[in-house]
Amino acid sequence: MSEAGSQAAPARDGERLLDELAEQPGGPELLSLAADRDDVALVGGAARDLLLGRVPRELDVVLGSGAAAPFARELARLLGGDSEGATVTIHSRFGTAAVDWPGGRVDIAERRAESYPAPGALPEVRPGSVEEDLARRDFTVNAIATPLGGRRRGMLDAVPQAIDDLAARRLRVLHDASFLDDPTRLLRLARYGARLGFRAEERTAGLASEAIAAGALQTVSRARVGAELRLALSEDDPLPALEAMQTLGVLGALDPALRFETTPAGLALSLLPPDGRPDLMLLAQLLLGLAPEGAVKERERAMFALLDPLEFNAGDRDRTIRTALAAPGLVSALAPAPPPSQLHDALAHETLEAVALAGALGGEAATETARCWLQTLRHVSLSITGQDLLDAGVPEGPQVGRRLTAALHRKLDGELADGREAELRAALEAQP
Ligand code: CTP
Question: How many CA atoms lie within 13 A of 283 on its CB side?
Answer without folding.
Answer: 27
